[in-house]
Amino acid sequence: MLRTQKPVIVISLLLVMLTALLSGCPAPADRAKEAASGYLTVEDDAGRAVTLPRKPERIVVLSTSYLDLLYAVGGQAIGRPTTPQSERLPPEAAVLTELGQTTNIDVEKLIALQPDLVIAYQGLHEKLVPLLNANHVPVLLLKMKTYEDVRAKLLLFGEIAGTGPVAASVAQQLTDRVRVVTDRLPARSRKVVILHATAKNITVELGSSIAGDVAGLLQLRNIAAESLPLAAEQAAAPFSLEKLVEGDPDVIMVTMMGKTGEVQKRLRDEVENNPAWAGMRAVRAKQVYFLPGDLFQLNPGVRYDEAVAYMARVVYPEVYGHGR
Predict the structure, then answer these.
(1) What is the pLDDT of residues 205-252, one digit of tens each?
(2) Long-range pairs for 66-71 at CB < 8 Å and ≥24 separation?
(3) CATH architecture for the domain at 186-320
(4) 255 and 205 in contact (C-beta within 8 Å)?
(5) What angle do CA 91, 95, 97 make, to 5 degrees?
(6) What is the CATH superfamily name and number for domain 38-179?
(7) Above 50 in pLDDT, residue 263?
(8) What is the pTM of this model?
(9) Where exactly are the structural domains of the chain?
């Protein structure tokens, strides 16, 4: 009897040990859930849920505006677009592998870098997503126009880089610098219009454009605010000289794309040769200003406060001084 009980005892002990081991391990479904959750899941501006399986160490950025923000929060990249405006680059980013113009990225060169994350611009880089995903490269499609967009991207890049506290500090410092300007606003706001001029066309900018958003931060009355946007570009509306004359703004500001000399000449010729312009108070008072592209055409990023201060000096020189 005693000999027959030993195997029973041994088997019982083994079953107890096995049960204990299994109870301490996650179920297969739980393990799959953990693996799927990864390091971070982000909903990008295209509404896509993008999961990063691990903290990215080989990031490629396809917009210099995003590159600036990534480095501002302590992140790093291995590739960037080619840009003639090298002064906008963080010093550490000057030596990164160049992948061609933002609008014409060399995809083979990009994939050869073996990135573990690509930060792309919504509206420009959608066509790259299927190919990059086929090569198991996560892609974030992001857009950035407004001040709140900049703050949100700073915090997002802090999450991605694992530098959340640094990103929060950078975002707060930006907020503080903007408030230094906005806290001094006069009680009475002024009417403005923001034109966007190219060598062939003129549109008016709405509140969702960079310059329009800055005007909103300064509590300026944009006479085009209620205009219907162009179908292809939600930040702009068609130009109407009749509506401009009717709105009669205190200040006219102009952003430009293309060869700035040619654009300025075209607009000046229009103003000087069309009598309808002459009656506007902004023209009579010589309150027509061309805004710098590095602050109002390209997103200024962590320099957003500089854009706010620049426009404040244009519209309220009696408060902020004339220096631009």
Answers:
(1) 999 999 999 999 999 999 998 887 886 667 899 999 999 999 999 999
(2) 66/119, 66/121, 66/142, 66/144, 66/153, 66/157, 67/93, 68/301, 68/302, 69/150, 69/153, 69/154, 69/157, 69/301, 69/302, 70/119, 70/157, 70/161
(3) 3-Layer(aba) Sandwich (3.40)
(4) yes
(5) 135
(6) Nitrogenase molybdenum iron protein domain (3.40.50.1980)
(7) yes
(8) 0.85
(9) 38-179, 186-320
